Amino acid sequence: MANILITGCSSGIGLASAKLLQQKGHRVIATARKQSDVEHLSSLGFESFLLDVTKFKSVDAVLKTILEKYHTLDVVFNNAGFGQPGAVEDISIDVLKYQFETNVFGTHYLTCEALKIMRKQGYGKIIQHSSVLGIIALKFRGAYNASKYAIEGLNDTLRQELMGTNIYISTLNTGPVSSNFRKNALKNFQENININQSIFKEVYNKELKERLESQSDTTIFTITSQEAAKTILKIVEAKKPKPRYYITKATHLLGFFKRILSTALLDKVLCRI
Q1: What is the b/e burial string over 204-228, where b = at least 16 CB atoms within 10 angstroms of the residue's CB?
Q2: What is the mean predicted confidence (pLDDT) over 127-148?
Q3: Is the pTM of this model over 0.85?
Q4: pLDDT tens readout for residues 52-85
Q5: Rounded to the nearest 10 degrees, what angle do helices 249-260 and 263-270 cross at?
Q6: Contact 179, 13 (CB under 8 A)
Q7: Exactly one of 70, 98, 109, 144 is catalytic; which is it?
């Protein structure tokens, strides 16, 4: 049985992973940044804590509690994150900072604190939730693209620095997965992008807003959060997990295009998505 800390368990892959891992006999410490979500997780039988990765004291408190109760931390799944849609030139510095505070700085802080524990105990696994958008970039997703590219750079470096330590970094490159991600992205889009003052106003109203508001997953590549969670279980139970896991056919396809196409041709392909 592994002691596993998961961030961002209110819904989606975080919640599905927590449920699957618990079913398989692992001890899951499920966290969320809203008290109502923490209470819901507790009602499902999880040991749950309030943890907002942008508030480092909450990270410290949860890690301290885990060590006091269980003495070891076997796995951390850095799943917390969100998407901020909008053209790059419509993203303010403050909005970009907040995107990075959650997706990059919060992940980085928890990773470094977990590494202190894992180096001391001599083993551990850290699962970093990147995206297919950490491999390729899509228009109107610049802030999110940049945050995931940053995670990729940190992960690629960490793997080299941790060689021979028995601590493994695994990067998840997820494509379209059924979750609340789109609903939350729509909220961020409406709150932080001045649609009417943008040069992309027509595109926003005709394409992007409609896509974000859609209640159905129209792409044939979309999988459920439960399917994605199976990869988390595989990593947790692997003796030596792989450094990278592609999740969904879309990730495999776009990753292949990235390897074989010129930059100019890849841009033309991606602009059609």
Answers
A1: beeebbeebeeeeeeeebbbebeeb
A2: 97
A3: yes
A4: 999 999 999 999 999 999 999 999 999 999 999 9
A5: 150
A6: yes
A7: 144
Contact 167, 241 (CB under 8 A): no
Q: Could you tell me if 175 and 249 are in contact, meaning their C-beta atoms sit under 8 angstroms apart?
A: yes
Nearest by Cα to 121 from 168, 80, 74: 74
144 has catalytic annotation = yes
Lowest mean pLDDT among 83-97, 141-155, 195-209: 195-209
Q: Give the C-alpha separation, 77 to 122, whole Å.
A: 18
* Residue 208, pLDDT above cutoff 80: no
238 — phi, psi (to 5°)?
-80, 140
Structural domains of the chain, with CATH: 3-179+222-248 (3.40.50.720)
What are the residue ranges of helices labelled H in 88-224? 93-100, 107-121, 142-161, 181-192, 201-203, 209-213
Q: Order of strands, edge to edge, in the sheet holding 3-6? A: 47-50, 27-32, 3-6, 75-78, 124-129, 167-174, 244-247
